[in-house]
Design brief:
- The radius of gyration is 21 Å and the shape is globular.
- The longest helix is centred in the last third of the chain and has 26 residues.
- β10 and β11 form a beta hairpin.
- The protein has two domains: about 240 residues, Nucleotidyltransferase, domain 5; about 160 residues, 2-Layer Sandwich (Nucleotidyltransferase, domain 5), CATH 3.30.420.40.
- α3 crosses α5, α12 runs antiparallel to α14 and α14 packs parallel to α15.
- It has 18 helices and 24 strands.
- By secondary structure, it is an alpha+beta fold.
């Protein structure tokens, strides 16, 4: 058996798989996000550790005893700063935190080769600008910082005692020469850091250490190997077999991602496309990233006093597509691709006396789809060919939403059995590769397809005017909110 642990934003998920990749058990533990100021998004690092224990101990004890290896996946970009005692100096600054916008521009001035080295535009969500913000606004914390870890790697430290990370996650810090797959002294220097503050770099399937005896005893396991793992999107891609040239995935989790793998490093920073290392040696990937996807469903359901996501999806389906003039811009936490705009915020336009909760629900699904269409356009402008995407994440539960997405994006969507398991499955696959020596082609198989949705040209044509309004609405909204 192999244990995959995903340190997410809204919770930690633990999955145990058999040697043939079948999911034998899974359990989740919830997490909360703190937003003490406008644009801020933080979590206490020890909350990740506590939630990890709750998720793992929620699995059947007999399955835990059979675990032969552990893999870690996690939310990317989070800045976890540790002092000389390896304890957190402050709450971690998360991927969807937008406070470091000014530091992004300063970082690119300090190192004019930044985009060439990293393959990415400096964005507030990335780790390096967060450390620059600490240097500017919390100098005592910055001066006391001895180690910077990503979220899953802080959990690794507590589980194994090792300071290590994988290249797919590290590539999102802006401290990695992504083409060379190594730390960049130039980018670290631009932030006032050196490699001494960085964990060791590994490829995803490589073993970084073993469970500490106390952790192994608590979990009812042996001191089994722990592999480097992956950032959440790369791990999710492995879980659905996205391991080769031009294979792609649509992840509808808290954030939304269109992920395409490739055997070459193909950056396109001008359109805020991410270009990172994949979790397997010799592979890279491109992503369009949208900071709010399924989180819009949860937010709108709570706002409209709808019991949950399933009921919200049902309301949207009852209203139908293009049910009214209502238009939703899903920028609850700002936006990355293609706008790189941490200041923009969500808006619900076109409401009138005839507006109903069902029509609002329909507008929310359409708005998230339109944002992803902006992203896939940016990928295609970079020369990326995308005709089919595997769908994972909590949003994969709604096939009605899938018809909207497939038509707006112009791609075939494959809904996979177990696709909602997400990055934890990819982490378990990496553990299996690291322990057994098996190759990705043998381990990272695509799960069975439970549904296929082809684009509907008539539906795309029907939604085209609304999407045009969506694009125009962002252009009008941006200058208004930027000056607030």
């Amino acid at each position: 058996m192999f244990l995959g642990i995903d340190i997410g934003t809204s919770g930690v998920k633990a999955v145990i798989t058999a040697h043939d990749g079948r999911v034998m058990g899974q359990c989740s533990a919830a997490l909360a996000v703190s937003r003490p100021h406008e644009l801020w998004s933080e979590q206490a690092p020890d909350d990740w550790v506590d939630a990890t224990h709750r998720a793992v101990l929620g699995l059947d004890a007999s399955l835990r005893r059979a675990v032969a290896g552990v893999g870690l996946a996690g939310q990317m970009h989070g800045a976890t700063v540790l002092g000389a005692d390896d304890r957190p100096l402050r709450p971690a600054i998360l991927w969807n935190d937008g406070r470091s916008h000014a530091q992004c521009a300063a970082l690119e001035r300090a190192e004019p080769r930044s985009r060439a080295i990293t393959g990415n535009i400096a964005m507030p969500g990335f780790t390096a600008p967060k450390l620059a913000w600490l240097r500017d606004h919390e100098p005592d914390v910055f001066a006391a910082t001895r180690t910077v870890l990503l979220p899953k790697d802080y959990v690794r430290l507590r589980l194994t005692g090792d300071k290590a990370t994988d290249l797919s996650d590290a590539a999102g810090t802006l401290w990695v020469d992504v083409g060379a797959r190594a730390w960049s002294d130039a980018m670290l220097d631009a932030t006032g850091l050196t490699t001494a503050a960085m964990p060791r770099l590994y490829e995803g399937p490589e073993v970084t250490g073993t469970l500490l005896p106390a952790i192994a005893a608590r979990w009812g396991m042996e001191g089994v190997p722990v592999v480097a793992g992956a950032g959440d999107n790369a791990a999710g891609a492995l879980g659905v077999g996205v391991i080769g040239e031009a294979q792609g995935m649509l992840s509808l989790g808290t954030s939304g991602v269109i992920f395409v793998a490739g055997s070459a490093f193909r950056p396109n920073p001008a359109r805020a496309v991410h270009a990172f290392c994949h979790a397997l040696p010799g592979l890279w990937h491109q992503m369009s990233v949208h900071l709010s996807a399924a989180s819009c469903i949860d937010w709108a359901a709570a706002l409209c006093q709808v019991p949950g996501a399933a009921e919200f999806f049902a309301l949207a389906e009852s209203a139908g597509v293009d049910a009214g003039p209502e238009l939703f811009l899903p920028y609850l936490s700002g936006e990355r691709t293609p706008h790189n705009d941490p200041h923009v915020r969500a808006a619900l336009l076109g409401m009138g006396n005839e507006t109903t909760t069902a029509r609002i629900a329909a507008a929310v699904l359409e708005g998230v789809a339109f944002a992803h269409a902006d992203g896939i356009d940016a990928l295609r402008e970079a020369g990326t060919v995308i005709t089919e995407l595997a769908v994972i994440g909590g949003g994969s539960r709604s096939l009605h939403w899938g018809h909207i997405l497939a038509s707006v994006l112009g791609v075939r969507l494959r809904y996979l059995e177990g696709g909602e398991v997400g990055p934890a499955l990819g982490a378990a696959h990496l553990a299996r590769m690291g322990v057994t020596g098996a190759g990705a082609a043998e381990v990272c198989l695509r799960p069975p397809v439970r549904a296929t949705i082809d684009p509907d040209p008539a539906l795309a044509e029907r939604l085209a005017p609304k999407r045009h309004r969506f694009v125009q609405a962002y252009r009008g909204l941006h200058p208004v909110q930027e000056n607030q």
